[in-house]
Write a structure and sequence with these properties.
Beta Polymerase, domain 2; seven-stranded mixed beta sheet; globular; alpha+beta; two-stranded antiparallel sheet
């Protein structure tokens, strides 16, 4: 990629050749309208990163976008029409089309906007230079904010004055670090870093859902280590996850290395566990404060209450533990222990031996499938057990015997015990 704005182009990208995309662009560029691809698709293509959604900006008003789509037989969905956004669906492929905007009053997610037709004004209301690039229907990149140079140097930088951009929406503090984790190199932009440190108190006014969503995106990046380090240095991490303050983030580099070596997918929740103490009450309070989903909260609390797993645990005992407990909590605990052992193994032969044993046990746990207890209450009634508490008591005793047999006793063998 060249940093020459005249030469930069995304025309060679496979996704750019989509007939569906150009059907939308041709529709919006006709009869005095103008449309350009904007944001992530342009940025990711220039940086060699896979492209997800394709967003389009246009000078046309939302009503005109809807009218043109209807005339062309294209489905339109008013996903955010009050803010100028209409999603056009072409043969099952969605394209989010947003009218150029001017901020009338900036107050975060629900800023008051007016529609405009000035590409420079629209570009300068965006957050980061690498997110403010456009590409025309010919694939040529249009840079009105200095984003090409920053992409070339992998510098994550606010558009214009960093303080002003953040005061428009304090979530941009977290976006700054999230994009640094994903796309940045070296040291973060100094102006942005100072502004984030100075304005971090503004994070308190954000909804917990927005904070957790942004933090989760950051933790899902290939390697969030450096971003978390700078978040700690500026006090931003303490502001949103105070539980991490004394526990620290030193486990993250080793966890990322372990993930890479063992082909684990990046797991935001596991990474969060690595930087907080395994205290059930504190984990529960954090999950509630961040408004995690019920499943996320359960996973965090279950892990925090799980005792350490001995690397000398027999396979039979491990399977009993998995059956009686929470398999996810067990594997989360083992993964974090394995990370610690692998890190220590760089200077400790005993830790290396322990890591090998834990790794084998983890393989057993991850390959384990919960067996179904083969006896039911109906079976016991047919076997002559009286209705009432005796059914539950007998089922419990049989299940214990079945577990003790390493789940090998058959239904017939268990029912034979009832007769005896």
């Amino acid at each position: 990629m060249s940093n020459d704005a005249e030469a930069a182009s995304i025309a060679g990208a496979k996704w750019f050749g989509s007939r569906r995309l150009h059907r939308v662009l041709d529709l919006l560029n006709a009869d005095g309208g103008e449309a350009r691809i904007v944001g992530g698709a342009v940025r990711n293509t220039l940086m060699g990163v896979p492209v997800g959604d394709i967003d389009i900006a246009t000078t046309l008003l939302p009503a005109e976008v809807v009218a043109r789509a209807k005339g062309a037989g294209i489905k339109s969905v008013p996903t955010g029409i009050d803010h100028g956004t209409v999603t056009l669906v072409v043969d099952g492929s969605p394209f989010e089309v947003t009218t150029l905007r001017v901020d009338v009053e900036a107050h975060g997610r629900h800023a008051t906007v007016a529609f405009g037709a000035d590409w420079s004004v629209d570009a300068h209301r965006r957050d980061l230079t690498m997110n403010g690039l456009y590409a025309g229907a010919d694939g040529k990149v249009i840079d009105l904010v200095g984003g090409l140079a920053d992409i070339e140097s992998k510098t994550v930088r606010f558009i214009g004055d960093a303080v002003t951009r953040i005061e428009e929406d304090y979530l941009r503090i977290l976006r700054f670090f999230r994009f640094f984790a994903r796309y940045g190199e070296g040291r973060p932009d100094a102006d942005g870093l100072r502004a984030c440190a100075r304005l971090k108190a503004g994070l308190e006014g954000l909804s917990a859902e927005r904070v957790w969503t942004e933090l989760k995106y950051l933790l899902a990046s290939p390697d969030p280590s450096r971003a978390l380090l700078w978040m700690r240095q500026t006090g931003v991490l303490t502001a949103i996850v105070p539980e991490s303050e004394k526990w620290g983030i030193d486990a993250i580099p080793g966890l990322v290395e372990t993930e890479t070596a063992l082909n684990w997918n990046p797991d935001p929740l596991l990474r969060l566990m690595a930087i907080i103490p395994n205290d059930s009450a504190r984990a529960d309070a954090m999950a509630q404060r961040l408004r995690m989903s019920n499943a996320e909260r359960k996973r965090m609390v279950s892990w925090a209450g799980e005792p350490a797993i001995s690397d000398d645990l027999a396979d039979v005992a491990l399977k009993r533990l998995l059956y009686r407990g929470d398999p996810q909590a067990v594997t989360d605990t083992m993964r974090l222990q394995l990370r610690a052992r692998r890190t220590a193994a760089q200077t400790d032969d005993a830790a290396l031996h322990s890591a090998a044993k834990l790794s084998r046990l983890l393989g057993v746990a991850e390959g384990w499938a919960r067996p179904g207890f083969p006896v039911t209450g109906g079976d016991l009634l047919k076997a002559g057990v009286a209705e009432g508490p005796a059914i539950g008591d007998t089922l419990g005793a049989l299940e214990e015997a079945w577990i003790d047999s390493n789940f090998n006793l058959t239904r017939e063998q268990l029912l034979e015990r009832v007769k005896e």
